[in-house]
């Protein structure tokens, strides 16, 4: 069972704040997350080092070598390059770090997929401007992006402007569980979202006009979503509510960028205070992505516990949401830019928990395969999230999402491959599911209307494959 022979891109991702550590080292400025952690978290000191990728880069590179990925998606810490956020002379140590990282990837024939903004806004911009509430930050972000294109663009062919703007707006300025920790004003949430869309569009046009002609790179924005299914598939009202639920999350950003340049009608009708785009802005924003970068994983998007009353069920069906994107946005090329699951910090060595997590990882690759082969969806790459255990935002170190285990209390912080890392390595090497020696279940050709889901039988298939790998010496249960 292969994905797309010779063409499909297999990768892994991290966020700078989650893994770099060294928050005050070598001239780095503070970010909103640095302040948030040191004011809101009891065990703030442990976040100062994290996986320590800033000083242990060679270990990250060895982990990438182990997997054999074709790309590495990482973010640049804005305040490591420019401590106040304003583009002046760059911090030389920070510049050296990212140049070394990018050069090392290119030397290994690993494509750098570079995210400009993964939530760690320089603190000065929050204090002086109010962060993303202020339109002035759009131009400052564009200046920062321009520097990155000028400095790294000769080696970077895939750019991400912003990672998951929905979570930035909602959790940073609505629920307050993310930095900068503001909460309560729904109007602010949508103002922030509005500014993030305009910031993305400005950077995209900047790149297309001044850099793409000779750098030949591609650019997008990572958008994330939950997936909702109706309790009663024959009930038109339940189906309509599910459609509205996804539009409020994914459509909020996807329709302006990948659609017609404007917000979904349902949002405009429901929210009288929703900012409006001018006709010129709609034209400017429409089509500002070279591919659809999609995030699907832990349920940061989980709605309140009213789903049963709304006739809705949360689902992990990646194949279904890929089909929704195909139908809504005219069959775009799709990069699965973030996908994975987690264990909690206490139970990650439990065999039962391990099988559940690995089964979800396997299931999602299966969904990707089915979407490509049977639904004719143009998925060209898959990003397993994340490369290694790190700081997991509001969960701190209470959950682990890495393919590689890191003992945060150790000095060496070795990257120890989990079983999921070994399994992903095998998938990458075979460009799919072991075509020569796979079990009959994995070789089967399914009909176009085959229904995929989480069942006990799928778990048994996973265990059967794992057992075969263990017995053949290709697989171990190191966590």
Automatic annotation (TrEMBL):
Q: Taxonomically, what lineage is the organism?
A: Eukaryota, Metazoa, Chordata, Craniata, Vertebrata
Q: Which domain of life is it from?
A: Eukaryota
Provenance organism: Anas zonorhyncha (Eastern spot-billed duck)
Note one Pfam family from the annotation: Glyco_hydro_1
Q: In its UniProt entry, what is this protein called?
A: Klotho beta
Protein family (similarity comment): Belongs to the glycosyl hydrolase 1 family.
Record's keyword terms, sorted: Signal
Q: Does the keyword NAD apply?
A: no
Residues spanning the membrane: none
- Signal peptide bounds: 1-16
A GO MF label: hydrolase activity, hydrolyzing O-glycosyl compounds
What is one process in the GO biological process aspect for this record? carbohydrate metabolic process
InterPro entries from the entry? GH, GH_1_N_CS, Glyco_hydro_1
């Amino acid at each position: 069972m292969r994905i797309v022979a010779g063409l499909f891109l297999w990768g892994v991702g991290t966020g700078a704040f989650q893994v770099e550590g060294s928050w005050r080292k070598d001239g780095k400025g503070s970010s909103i997350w640095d302040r948030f952690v040191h004011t809101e978290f009891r065990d703030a000191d442990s976040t100062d080092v994290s996986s320590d990728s800033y000083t242990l880069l060679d270990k990250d590179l060895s982990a990438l070598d182990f997997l054999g990925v074709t790309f590495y998606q990482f973010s640049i810490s804005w305040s490591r390059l420019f401590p106040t956020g304003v583009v002046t002379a760059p911090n030389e140590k920070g510049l050296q770090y990212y140049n070394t990282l990018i050069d090392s990837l290119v030397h290994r024939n690993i494509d750098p997929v570079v995210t400009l903004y993964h939530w760690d806004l320089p603190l000065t911009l929050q204090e002086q401007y109010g962060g993303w509430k202020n339109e002035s930050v759009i131009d400052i972000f564009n200046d920062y992006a321009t520097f990155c294109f000028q400095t790294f663009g000769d080696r970077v062919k895939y750019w991400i402007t912003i990672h998951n703007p929905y979570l930035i707006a909602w959790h940073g300025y609505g629920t307050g569980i993310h930095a900068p920790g503001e909460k309560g004003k729904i109007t602010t949430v949508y103002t922030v979202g509005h500014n993030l869309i305009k910031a993305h569009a400005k950077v995209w046009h900047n790149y297309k006009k001044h850099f793409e002609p000779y750098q030949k790179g591609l650019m997008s924005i990572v958008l994330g979503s939950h997936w909702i299914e109706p309790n009663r598939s024959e009930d038109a009202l339940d189906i309509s509510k599910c459609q509205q639920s996804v539009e409020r999350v994914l459509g909020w950003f996807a329709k302006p960028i990948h659609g017609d340049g404007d917000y979904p009608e349902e949002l405009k009708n429901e929210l009288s205070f929703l900012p409006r785009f001018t006709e010129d802005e709609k034209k400017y924003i429409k089509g500002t992505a070279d591919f659809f970068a999609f995030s699907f994983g832990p349920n940061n998007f989980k709605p309140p516990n009213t789903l049963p009353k709304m006739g809705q069920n949360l689902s992990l069906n990646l194949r279904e949401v890929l089909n929704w994107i195909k139908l809504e946005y005219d069959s775009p090329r799709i990069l699965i830019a973030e996908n994975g699951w987690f264990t909690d910090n206490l139970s990650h060595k439990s065999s039962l928990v391990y099988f559940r997590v690995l089964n979800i990882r396997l299931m999602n690759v299966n969904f990707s395969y089915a979407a490509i082969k049977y639904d004719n969806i143009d998925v060209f790459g898959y990003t397993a999230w994340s490369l290694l255990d790190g700081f997991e935002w509001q969960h701190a170190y209470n959950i682990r999402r890495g393919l590689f285990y890191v003992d945060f209390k150790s000095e060496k912080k070795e990257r120890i491959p989990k079983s999921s890392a070994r399994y992903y390595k095998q998938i990458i090497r075979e460009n799919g599911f072991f075509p020569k020696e796979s079990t009959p279940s994995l070789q089967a050709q399914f009909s176009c209307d085959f229904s995929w889901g989480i069942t006990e039988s799928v778990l048994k298939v996973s265990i059967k494959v794992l057992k075969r790998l263990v017995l053949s010496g290709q697989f171990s249960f190191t966590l």
